[in-house]
């Protein structure tokens, strides 16, 4: 015959219930995980992108911008402006389809980026140009062409222009990537918007450098 199980005395059972209730009340509720997607606007000509949870968390804890960021934006505006001068020479100086398409893409993307950078400065009440900067403040900017080099490019035609355009634009793009490295070295790029823009410049112009090197190899 099976012996009946002994039940815990009522007092003990009640004490256990109270203890469990207390533990439940004292325990911190689990941190809710947001299921709402965070969308990062795409670079000019590219689709938007859904940020990973880690990227979204980084964006929520963005640090304030600093002087290095402002200088980077102003310098990049000047850098992009010269690139538009260079691409502006293309339609009248070459019929090469690949170079014309490349220049058109650069013109569209860098025009959009200029508007983005100017808006960034305006939103923070920062002057688009430093009123205290010297007239030749950009003379030593990485990758910037000299007046003589620009004149040489403007005077060229056909295959000579195509070769010079690729050589000069590769140097110009490499300068932009160096500017990103200089920004990071100066401790800038911690603000989310500038950090994302700098990484885009580094990646996008790196891709264009590789493409231009392929085209340039045809002139060897």
Structure write-up:
By secondary structure, the chain is an all-alpha fold. It has a single domain, classed as Up-down Bundle (Ferritin). It is 62% helix and 2% strand. It is built from 7 helices and 2 strands; from the N terminus they run H-E-E-H-H-H-H-H-H. It has helices spanning 10-26, 53-60, 67-88, 97-123, 147-155, 158-185, 192-216, and strands at 39-40, 49-50. Strands 1-2 form a two-stranded antiparallel sheet. Strand 1 and strand 2 form a beta hairpin. Helix 6 packs antiparallel against helix 7 (192-216). The longest helix has 28 residues, at 158-185. It is globular and about 50 Å long. The termini are far apart. The relative contact order is 0.13. Residues 1-34 have low confidence and may be disordered.
